[in-house]
Specification:
Belongs to the UPF0301 (AlgH) family. The protein is of the alpha+beta class. It is built from 5 helices and 10 strands, in the order ββββαββββαβαβαα. Strands 1, 2, 3, 4, 5, 6, 7, 8, 9 and 10 form a 10-stranded mixed β-sheet that branches.
């Protein structure tokens, strides 16, 4: 089987009828994808009733300059683990560059920097992640389920979480209302 191209720095949009309700209308920013597997952060939904200030309070960090931004549902894996997708104008002890499009940090230093007004200029916070083992995402991409598109910063930072799925398809020239959730048989 020929391997799909690596998708680091791109988005995956869940197709209608993906078969897993946790991923219905999901938009996932792929942060790493290689022969060992893939990891992505969900950016298409927020966690109701949870804002950044609530998260900062759990770490005894004063919100300071940080707006009370919504916290995203990053995915079903390790839902208590936090991640920040952010612009590349800031880096901390564990920050990784994601294909030159954005950066990913997963330690408390980025939250402190944001609260102090000295963090990245653009960011979003998520709890949990989506993960795939060796070859799993490549295999899933051969079936109905995921649509990938380039990592557009406007989609990531300038679009509300609830509108990212529809806008992502729209930017690809696809009206998602016309997508079928199942295929017919002949």
């Amino acid at each position: 089987m020929e391997s799909a191209p690596f998708l680091t720095g791109q988005f995956l949009l869940a197709m209608p009828g993906i078969g897993d309700p946790r991923f219905e209308h999901a938009v996932i920013a792929i942060c790493a994808h290689d022969e060992k597997g893939a990891i992505g952060i969900g950016v298409g939904a927020t966690i109701a009733g949870l804002g950044l200030h609530d998260l900062l309070a759990q770490f005894s960090i004063e919100p300071g300059a940080a707006p009370n931004a919504p916290v995203h549902f990053g995915g079903p894996v390790e839902p208590r683990r936090g991640f920040v997708i952010h612009s590349s104008d800031w880096g901390g002890q564990d920050t990784i560059d994601v294909a030159g499009r954005w950066s990913l940090s997963g330690t408390i230093d980025v939250l402190r920097a944001i609260s102090e007004g000295q963090g990245p200029s653009r960011w979003l916070v998520a709890l949990g992640y989506a993960g795939w083992g060796e070859g799993q995402l490549d295999e899933e991409l051969t079936r109905h389920g995921w649509f990938n598109l380039p990592g557009d910063m406007t989609l990531l930072y300038d679009t509300d979480a609830g509108a990212r799925w529809q806008r992502g398809f729209g930017e690809a020239g696809i009206d998602p209302r016309l997508l079928a959730s199942s295929t017919g048989t002949a």
